[in-house]
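step 4 of 6: structure.
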Amino acid sequence: MAKTISEINEKIKKGQAVVVNAEEIIDLVAKKGMEKVAREVDVVTTGTFGPMCSSSAYFNLGHTKPRIKLGGGRVYLNDIPAYTGVAAVDIILGATAMPDDDPRNRVHPGAFNYGGGHVIEALVAGKDVRLVATAYGTDCYPRKKLESWICLKDLNEAVLFNMRNAYQNYNVAVNLSDKTIYTYLGVLKPNLGNANYCSAGQLSPLLNDPFYKTIGIGTRIFLGGGVGYVAWQGTQHSPAALRGDNGVPRRGAGTLAVIGDLKGMNPRWLVGTSMLGYGPTMTVGIGVPIPILNEEILRYTAVKDEDIYAAVVDYSDAYSQRKPDIVGEVSYAQLKSGIVVLQNKKVPTASLSSYPRALEIANTLKDWIAKGKFLLTEAVAPLPGVESGLSAKPFNERPIEQKEL
Amino acid sequence: MAIKKRVVLHFPARRVDEPIIYKLVKDYDLVLNVLKASIMPNEEGRMVMELSGTKENYDKGIKYLQSAGVKIQSLGQDVRRNDAHCTHCGVCVVVCPSGALSLDHKTRMVKFDSAECTACELCVLACPPRAMGVYL
C-alpha cells in the first residue's frame, strides 16, 4: 500500500505519524517483515556529523554611515579573510579559510587551530566577532576603513550555504609508505598503521536513499541544529559510481548542496575543526527524513552496515597521484568492529564521522516530526540519478604556452 | 607493599646538572620507566615516568625528590578532555599509544581513562575539535 507525502504530513500534524531512525528500522524490518513495516512506519530519519570542507556562510552586514563598498576591498572576521567579490556589504566566508599569517605547513605538520569554520561556530554561538575591512572608496561609498565588533543577531542575513555535504559513501584512508602522513582523513601511521573512515554508514542520509527516490531539490532537512533545505546536487555529484547488487554505492557517489538560516542553528552542530597538517574545516550536522512511501523505499532504509562497502585507498601515493588502485574493500560493520584485515595485517580503524552524534541528529529529527514541528516536503526537482551517467571529471589540464619576450 | 605510580616531575633549572634519577635507583631501589623527558641545561625540565618499588622506598624517594626541589604531580592531571568540545568521532583512538583513549563499542562513545594516559600529547593536535588539552 503506497502512501503520499501529503498523507504523511496530515498524520504528522495530528501527532500520529510513526517515526523511527535508520538504525531502529533495521531490527523492525527483521522482526515484522517489509510489508507490515511499510504500512506502519511513515518516516525514517537519518543523520551524519562529520568534517565537511565545502561549507560556507554568506552575510549581509547592513550599511555603515557613511557607506563603505566592501566589494573589491578586503574583509577579515577574527583575522580570517572573507570573500568580497559581490555587492557592497555582502560577504562570503568559507570553512577552510585561514589567517593570512597562519604558518600553514611551513613547520610540518601545521596545527591550523583557527579558520572560517571556527568563525561560523563563534557567530552561531552568539559571540562577538572582530570585523576589520578596507575599501577603495567611491563617490557613493566614500568610507575606506571599518573596524567593528559584529554578532549574528545584528546581521541582516546569515545563511549557511554548503556546496558539497553529506557524501554518499567515502574512501577509507590508509598509508602504505614508511612515514606518518597528515591528511584530511586524519593522521595516518606508516605501513598500514591505521585505517580512517568518514561516514555514518547505515545512518547516513544518502546511503538510505541510494537512488535519490525521495531526497531531491527542496527537501527540508535538519541542518546545523536548525532547519535547512537541499538546494541542489552537491559538487562532484557522481551517481554513476560503482554500486553493489543492493544499489548502494561502493565508492564516493552522490552529494548534496544545502542551505539554511544560520540564525536558527546551534554551535553543537557546526563545529570549527582542525586537521593536523591539512587545514581548518567545519564539522557539520545533517539529518534527512525519508518518507516511507512504499516497500521499495523502506527496503533501502533498512540497509545495514554489513551491506555497505567502501574502498580502501593509499593516501601516501594512490590518492595523491590520482591512481585508480585500491587496497581493497571493507564493510562498515568491519570498520566499526575496530579492526580490518588488509594485506594480511590487522589494521585498527578510526572514524572522523561521529556515530553517536549522527544518532542524536536522527533522534532529534524524529522528535521534531513526532511532535508535529517538522513537516516533510515534496522535492521540487529530482537530483540527477544513475541514468544521467553523471560522474565527476578529473581536471582537464591544458598548459598555457609561454611566449618568449 | 609494592606500589606503582605514574608521575610528572618538574625539575628546576638549577638542578638539571645533578644525577637525581640515578639516586632514585641507587639509594631508594625504585624501578623506573621513563615515558617522556625534556631536560635542557638552564631550563626547567619535565619528565614523565612510572615509578615502582616498595611503599616505604617510594615514599622516601618522593621525599628525596621534594627535598631536591623537584615538583611532583600525578599524571592524571596532565592531559584532560574538554567534554563539551569532544564530538566522539574517534580519530584519537588509533593515535593514542597507551590505550587511555578507547571506543565503547556499544555506544560508540570515546572513553578517556586518565590513569592509562602517559601524557605523550599525540592526541592534542590530532583531535579535530581540539578537545584534548595539556594542563600543567
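step 5 of 6: annotate
 - Chain A has a mean pLDDT of 97.
 - Residues 355-370 of chain A form the longest helix (16 residues).
step 6 of 6: archive
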